[in-house]
Amino acid sequence: MANLIRYITQEDPMEKMRRQKENENPDASAGFFNTPSRTAAQAADPDHEIRERMYPIIKAHEGNKNFPYKDSVGKITIGAGINIDDEDKFRSMEWMDEQKRRIRPDDAVKYRNVLHEMEGNNYKADYYEDKTPLRIADEEIRRLYDMHVNNDLKELRDTFKDFDRFPPELQNVLLDIKYNTGNVLPINWPNLHKAIAKRSIKGILDNVHRYQVGIKRNQWAEDEIRKIKRLNY
Fold first, then answer.
1. Are 213 and 183 in contact (CB under 8 A)?
2. Greatest Cα pair distance in the chain
3. If residue 67 lies in a helix (H) or strand (E), which one and from where to where?
4. What are the helix (H) ranges across 101-160?
5. How would you write the pLDDT of the chain (233 residues) with one tens digit per residue?
6. Which residues lie across from 65 on neighbouring strands?
7. pTM above 0.85, yes or no
C-alpha cells in the first residue's frame, strides 16, 4: 500500500519537463502579447499604442469610407479622411471594385478625373458612393491611416520638444488637431503653445477649439483635456 501511495503522489515526468521549460522561459505560457518578440516589436514601434487608441476616435470624427469622395474644399478623400487628391498618390492605391476585382491604376485615374469634373463640393461623402466603382479594402484604409499618423507624430515631435512626456490625453488632442487641420504650429496656435509652455490645463482647455469642425469633435477635445490632473513634463 505504501508503494502505491508513493507512486500516486509522484509528479508526472511530462508535467515536470513542462514546468522546467516554463521556469527557463517564464514568458512561454503567457501568450503572444507577452513574448519577448512582441516586446521587441513594441520597442521598435513606440507609436503603436497611440495609433491604436486613436484609430476608432479618428474614424468616428472623420468617417470611414472605402470609396473616394470630394471633401468640402473639393479634394478627393478616402478612408478616415485621407487626402488622395494628388494623381501619383491616387495611382498608387490598391483599387478594386465591389466584387474585389482589381482596377488598373490608369483606369482608376480616369475615375479620379470624373470626380474632379463633378460640380459642387458640399455634398455628403455618401453622395459619391455610386459615382465610381472604386473601392479599397479595410487593410488599405488602415495602412493609409498608419502612414498619416506616423507623419503627424514626427511633425508633432518637431513642434513640441516634450511631446513624448505629455499626458496621453494631451497627445491625443494634439494628434487629432494635426490630423484634422494639417498643423499645430505656433504661428497658427499661439495661445495653445503658450498654455502648454506654462503647463496651464485651463489655458489648454480654452484653446483647443476648432471653428471648422463640429460640436462633437470640439467637445471630445475638451473632455480629453479635463481628464488631465497635472502637467509635469
1. no
2. 94
3. strand 65-70
4. 105-117, 138-159
5. 444 444 334 444 444 444 554 455 444 333 333 444 445 655 688 899 999 999 999 999 999 999 999 998 899 999 999 999 999 999 999 999 999 999 999 999 999 999 999 987 789 999 999 999 999 999 999 999 999 999 999 999 999 999 999 999 999 999 999 999 999 999 999 999 999 999 999 999 999 999 888 999 999 999 999 999 999 99
6. 79
7. no
